[in-house]
């Protein structure tokens, strides 16, 4: 019997309120001076930008709110495109719910 496909996730919109998955921890590593995403049997060293976005994914902020928070430091960056794409990609990895 073939395996059933995984249910599709809803598209990321400005109203989406991303949060870390229950099995994922975000920690700052002082030795590496970098954010680490810790999961069962896996750790991911994050870029400063990825760490900043994931720190803002607290389940309270919307994607639009995350973009607004980042825009203060990065006014010329294409955040309206990049942030939802990043969130969609890490949701597909299972890092966000």
From TrEMBL:
GO terms for molecular function: quinone binding. It comes from Actinomadura montaniterrae. Pathway: Cofactor biosynthesis; pyrroloquinoline quinone biosynthesis. GO terms for biological process: pyrroloquinoline quinone biosynthetic process. The gene is pqqD. Monomer. Interacts with PqqE. Keywords: PQQ biosynthesis. NCBIfam families: PQQ_PqqD. InterPro entries: PQQD, PqqD_bac, PqqD_sf. Transmembrane segments: none annotated. This is Pyrroloquinoline quinone biosynthesis peptide chaperone PqqD. It holds the Pfam family PqqD.
């Amino acid at each position: 019997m073939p395996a059933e496909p995984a249910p599709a996730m809803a598209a990321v919109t400005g109203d989406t309120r991303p949060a870390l998955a229950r099995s994922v921890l975000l920690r700052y590593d002082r030795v590496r001076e970098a954010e680490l995403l810790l999961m069962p049997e896996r750790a991911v060293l994050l870029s400063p930008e990825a760490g900043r976005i994931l720190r803002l994914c607290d389940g309270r902020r919307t994607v639009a709110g995350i973009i607004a928070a980042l825009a203060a430091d990065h006014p010329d960056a294409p955040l309206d495109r990049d942030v939802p794409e990043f969130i969609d990609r890490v949701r597909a990895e299972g890092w966000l719910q």
